[in-house]
Amino acid sequence: MAAAAETVVSQTEPEVLLAGHGITKRFGSVVANDDVSVELRPGRILALLGENGAGKSTLVNVLFGLHRPDAGQVVIADENVELSSPHDAIARGVGMVHQHFQLVPPMSVVRNIVLGAEPRKLGMIDVAQARRRVMDLADRFGLHVDPDAAVEDLPVGAQQRVEILKALYRDARVLIADEPTAVLTPQETDHLLDVLRGLTAQGVGIVFITHKLREVMAAADDIVVLREGRVVGTTTPAQTSEAALAELMVGRAVDLHGDRFESGATGVGSAVSTAAAPSDEAPIAEADEQPVVLDIAGLCADDDRGQRAVDELTLAVRAGEIVGVAGVEGNGQRELVEAITGLRHAAAGTVSISDRDASGARPRQVTVIGVGHIPEDRAKHGLIGSYSVADNSVLNRYFKRPFAAGGMLRRDRIDSHARDVVATFDVRTPDVDSPADSLSGGNKQKLIVGREFSDDIDLLIAAQPTRGIDIGAIEFIWRRIRERRDEGTAVLLVSAELDEVLALSDRVAVMYEGRIVATVDPRTATREEIGLLMAGAESSAAGS
Amino acid sequence: MRALMRAAAVPLASVVLGLVLGAVLIAVQGHSVTSAYGALVLGGAGDADALLRTLQKATPLVFGGLAVAFAFKAGLFNIGGQGQLLVGAAFAAGVGFGLEGLPLVVHLPLALLVGGAAGAAWGAIAGVLKATSGAHEVIVTIMLNFVAGNLTDWLAANPWQDRSGSNIIARTPLVEPSAEIPTWGWLPAGFVLAVLAAFACWFVLERTTYGFEVRSVGANRHAARYAGISVGWIMASTMAVAGLLAGLGGAIESLGVDGRFEAGVNVGLGFEGITIALLARTNPIAVIPAGLLVGLMEAGAAKMQFESGVAPEIIDVIQALILLFVAAPLIVRWLLRLRDRPDAPDRRLTLGAGWGR
Ligand SMILES: Nc1ncnc2c1ncn2[C@@H]1O[C@H](COP(=O)(O)OP(=O)(O)OP(=O)(O)O)[C@@H](O)[C@H]1O
Ligand SMILES: [Mg+2]
């Protein structure tokens, strides 16, 4: 066991690390995987691409033993295997980094990594040895984390590295990651891709899922594209292009111009002009005469650990404009949104919405004033997994007409509303009675977005609105946000994707350490300027 | 229909398993299984009297089961059915014998109402403490069971004791005829109320906005808050409703079966509600057959002993076995729910507040 790390590059190199042959998986009437075959060889990165609901998560879950396939064969290290649970996969050297990390927050990094497989001495956990082994692994793979820090104090990117170390500590030769970059900042994403590259150099094979074509082109060796549960293409970055991949995924040509998958090199100007083409003339000048809808003054709020996260923040959003908040994650964006929407207690300051005082308002009051809120954490706040799609489609409006009358729910109205949302936002589900848990990640997000768009609102607060959504649907959601803006809704957009902020916003507010440090015009500011401001540089040139 | 079968599979299997193991125990003791189980069924449903006994036994079980099931929908584990039932029984009896000269249409509803209200208040204490300070409802309701036991014992032994004749038992006088719950042949009116209560619970939970709120809090507290639901109010009010149900069960015992409140008579009834609720998988409608099943076994136990010599305690053993089989998956899941999502910060807060103060 002491030589755990060495076994990663074992002598008897298998030809195929992990494979599925003819995998078919059905959920009721839905065929999530239809005769899918994929193969992962040592030292390679296999990227799975596909629209929301194409069956990517299902496939990796089958390969990891979370689902049993209805037909087909799973192969691990050249051997046909029957996986009855993830334990079987882990025992054969397959590790998975889940989107919701499986870590114990108050415990240290080392303890989390060795949990369940602790080195022992005289029946006690040999802490020194555990620590040494973890440090060795971390050094070897360039996964830098503070071994003694409590996991809850680490940023998301570092927690993810802990998850990877956890898998490597268990001698993983295959690492599966389902949308690992969805929650990462661009810098963290780059770092992760480097780490994955480093792992392949040591013979580890990697399967990863992403919606970002740029990452696929940059990191993958092999690309498998799924559509409606079937493999529709197997290729390599050298043989394809982003446009070709997008077309393969969606089954039609996708205009990549103006979305965030365009490489940053072409600059912001083009992104904005193509993106906002129809109503490009509207904002800024005219918006100044529009009434202020969201008015925040001197707002202070603390994070979960009692640290000041929003610090005397002042910001106004007018009717008919989109204000994008740009910032490195963890600079108080989440707390800002929660303080406005009533989910978090504000320590000081005022918030007014549509000229009504909403300081310290409860979530219900904020909704009733006319605010839509796409929450950042869809599993925690956005949906109730065990509830039907229909119930989730009115989750925060169930008490309103026409969904309720006299304290009674009106199922027929709720169902027909849900069918509207599902049809308009292309939520892929067999019916509106299915539980939200059965939707794919991106379809959950579409359901939330659709819900928040379906009410008459004056203010839309959108936190990471397109997280986990495929490129086709992003186009659509962006268009809807712009339409809302043009109809006079004030929009506060918070996104970790600078491209998204730049493409949608009429003004960009740069947030750093709980304050808005500058407000810039996305049509004139460069990415570099904004990047510097996000990193805390004093604003002088860019301020407006 | 398919869904119904799937939902009922575990409880039905558990019942069958429990009965089979019970049969083995009976056989091992050298008794005849067929005559024992035959007598059990005859004693519980063989004639009008048997049926009446079963329905009377089932009534508080259904109410107790509902008291657990309803709270469970909000994610609360109500162990306090016993205490809520006791105060309901005592106060309903108090009104039943204490007020004289009222017509039945006033007196009986009033006594039921007071019993229910007493239970509701008892349940609400735990709910309010949970909502305001995070005090864990399991601990609080268990402690309140002791308080309720002692309080009602004292009431029955002191201010409300029956002083007639040479009575030295800690019990109230018989309630006035105008506060008695009638029995129609083999059908006690109390059981009708229990069935109505079960359907009412189902209706409230599934059809009203309040029920939507209760279930939301139980399924995902954070999302409930996002949805604008006052989590504290739901916790407090849900426990009050649960207490109301258990209290009504107690009131019907006093007014419809015993005719009075007597210290020590109803002990244990409230706890059986947990069995019933788990057997029904916390579905309010399913609480009715679950209550009937257990009621039948209890009603038939005496005849079983009389006819085949099997000790009636075997019924408790079978019940315990059934509970074990049903509860194991549920309890495991329950524990998991407490432990999963360790990333949720509020959870730590709640526990901290719950245990710390
Ligand atoms: N547990 C489940 N029960 C029922 N249906 C399911 C379940 N899990 C997935 N599905 C269905 O299977 C299909 C494929 O889902 P999957 O999660 O694999 O998609 P995906 O490619 O990962 O999509 P996304 O990009 O949105 O994450 C979807 O139609 C989904 O609704
Ligand atoms: Mg997925």
Q: In CATH, what is the class of the largest domain in chain A?
A: Alpha Beta
Average pLDDT of chain A works out at: 85
CATH fold field value of the largest domain in chain A: Rossmann fold
Any low-confidence stretches of chain B, pLDDT <50, length ≥5?
A: 335-357
CATH topology of chain B: ABC transporter involved in vitamin B12 uptake, BtuC
User: Strand order across the biggest sheet of chain A?
Assistant: 6-9-10-3-11-12
Shape of chain A: globular
Could you name the ranges of chain A where pLDDT drops below 50 across 5 or more consecutive residues? 1-10, 258-285
Name the pair of protein chains with the most residues at their interface, and give those residue counts.
A-B, 35 and 25 residues
Structural class of chain A: alpha/beta
Shape of chain B: globular
Indicate the multimeric state. heterodimer
Please count the helical segments of chain B: 14
Strand percentage of chain B: under 5%
How is the main sheet of chain A built?
6 strands, mixed
The total of beta strands of chain B comes to: 2
Q: What's the CATH architecture name of chain B?
A: Orthogonal Bundle
Features of the shown structure:
heterodimer; A: 544 residues; alpha/beta; Rossmann fold; 6-stranded mixed sheet; 18 helices; disordered N terminus; B: 357 residues; mainly alpha; ABC transporter involved in vitamin B12 uptake, BtuC; 1% strand; globular; binds adenosine-5'-triphosphate; binds magnesium ion
